[in-house]
């Protein structure tokens, strides 16, 4: 799980142009780091490409934190594997 967390944190940092050290896993990307909707969509697309999953529109709010993104990706990978 640590590897996925670090990968996602790195992806979010690159897309948002924030320093990875500043990103807390439980922090709201939109409220605490002012990530806009376009950057949020970029994060979703990057996750889909990197992990080979499809993120449904109703799951997009879960991407508002790194921890939520990690949890969602793990769930989607588990479904994909079964």
UniProtKB/TrEMBL annotation:
Keywords: Phosphopantetheine, Phosphoprotein. PROSITE patterns: PHOSPHOPANTETHEINE (PS00012). It holds the Pfam family PP-binding. Residues 7-66 form the Carrier domain. InterPro entries: ACP-like_sf (IPR036736), PP-bd_ACP (IPR009081), Ppantetheine_attach_site (IPR006162). This is Carrier domain-containing protein. It comes from Desulfotomaculum copahuensis.
């Amino acid at each position: 799980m640590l590897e996925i967390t670090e990968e996602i944190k790195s992806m979010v940092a690159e897309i948002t142009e924030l320093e990875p050290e500043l990103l807390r896993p439980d922090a709201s990307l939109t409220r605490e780091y002012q990530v806009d909707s376009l950057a949020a969509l970029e994060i979703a697309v990057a996750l889909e490409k990197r992990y080979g999953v499809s993120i449904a529109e109703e799951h997009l709010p879960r991407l508002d934190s790194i921890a939520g993104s990690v949890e969602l990706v793990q769930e989607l990978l588990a479904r994909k594997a079964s």
